[in-house]
Write a structure and sequence with these properties.
23% strand, Rossmann fold, binds adenosine-5'-triphosphate, alpha/beta, binds magnesium ion
Length: 372
């Protein structure tokens, strides 16, 4: 017959699916009752109607069933009290808190000195596939086992929740926002805080504040990657981002068209002006492969390569036009998951691979090449 302590130990590796911490450490395990081979576990959910209750019950049942002598597991659910929730929120704020004026806890941006690699996916104009690239690139990184978070900073045209397959708002625990997760990527979007049928009118200072809140009021954990879908064009958001995330690496998405590439170039210069480094170019909609197997260059060719050369950065990849990519964005099944062998998926995984292995060549400064 298992002991109560053995059951707790078995539950220790079980993580809350959103918070990514042990349910024992989070204080969610309220009681264990062992009766012969029959084990009862009382679990307190963070919020009533927690959308992940089924997943939590499954994880607890699996963990306890694995113990010697356990014949049956019963999981009872309850909800944390306000005090317990406040305590949990405090512990989630943890490292991201410092005492501000007046002794109040002021939250700080966790990304200024973390090792998280921040990728800002930008473009000069809309509709070039920025959100599709951001979504699939984030998922491709997660598929490689990387810890990935994403921000949909396209405050006027948020589309990442739908593309990533997220169908529920974030859980809010005493003002700490826990981002929902799908396809291995946790996401915060302005779309969670606005109604789809109402356009959001954000002005400069409000926008700045909203972006800051994305960074400070969200329980991000310590992701290896933070991938950001930037709004098209340049302006307020780029400025705010540069200020909040000074180490962000900018990736410019463009189409093969010469005209698109000129606009993209402006986005790149803007990035440089605010001191963000552009690390690469992704060309999207590069060709369409017909049933005859031939690649048709509908939007022309060479734009990505040319832009990359002008900026002195690598062309990280070329993604073809594929209807499954569009469909996957519409129904929340990113193509890298639904059609992993498609050439678009292969191209996107190639980009992720280059970023992970850091094949992106660094600028090398050799003294003998100095221009006098
Ligand atoms: N490689 C591709 N193959 C097929 N469809 C694509 C491809 N890339 C993007 N699309 C489709 O083109 C449309 C625009 O793409 P997306 O929304 O990703 O662009 P965006 O640059 O984020 O646009 P916006 O400026 O509106 O935010 C979407 O319907 C998307 O599904
Ligand atoms: Mg978009």
């Amino acid at each position: 017959m298992p002991t109560e302590a053995a059951v707790i130990e078995a539950l220790r590796p079980v993580e809350d699916p959103e918070i990514h911490r042990s349910i024992v450490d989070l204080g969610m395990v309220k009681g264990v009752l062992v009766n012969g081979g029959h084990v009862e576990v009382l679990v307190a959910l963070t919020t009533e109607g927690c959308p992940l209750r089924t997943e939590i019950v499954k994880r607890v049942t699996e963990a306890v069933s694995g113990l010697d002598g356990v014949a049956a597991v019963d999981v009872e659910l309850t909800v944390m009290t306000d005090d317990e929730r406040a305590q949990l929120a405090e512990s989630l704020r943890g490292g991201a808190t410092e005492t501000g004026a007046g002794g109040h806890a002021a939250r700080t941006n966790p990304f200024t000195d973390s090792r998280t690699r921040v990728l800002a996916i930008s473009s000069g104009k809309g509709g070039v596939g920025k959100s599709s690239v951001t979504t699939n690139l984030a998922v491709a990184l997660a598929q490689r086992g990387e810890d990935v978070a994403a921000i949909d900073a396209d405050v006027w045209g948020f589309s990442m929740p739908r593309m990533l397959g997220i169908d529920r708002p974030p859980t809010v625990i005493d003002e700490v926002i826990v981002p929902p997760e799908a396809n291995g990527v946790r996401l915060i979007s302005m779309g969670f805080f606005a109604r789809e049928d109402q356009p959001v009118v954000w002005r400069g200072p409000m926008l700045h504040k909203a972006l800051e809140q994305f960074l400070t009021d969200v329980h991000w954990g310590d992701p290896k990657w933070l991938v950001i879908d930037m709004p098209p064009g340049t302006g307020d958001i780029a400025l705010s981002m540069a200020q909040f995330l000074p180490r962000a690496e900018v990736i410019i998405v463009t189409t093969p068209q010469a005209a698109a590439q000129k606009v993209a170039q402006r986005a790149a210069y803007m990035a440089k002006k605010v001191n963000l480094s552009v690390v690469g170019v992704v060309e999207n909609m590069s060709w369409f492969r017909g049933d005859d197997g031939k690649a048709y260059e509908i939007f022309g060719s060479g734009g990505g390569e040319e832009l990359a050369q002008q900026l002195g950065v690598p062309l990280l990849g070329q993604i073809p036009l594929v209807s499954e990519l569009r469909a996957g964005g519409d129904d929340g099944h990113p193509i890298v998951v639904s059609h992993p062998d498609d050439e678009a998926s292969v191209a996107i995984r190639g980009i992720a691979e280059k970023l992970i292995t850091d094949l992106v060549p660094k600028k090398i400064f050799r003294p003998e090449l100095k221009i006098i």
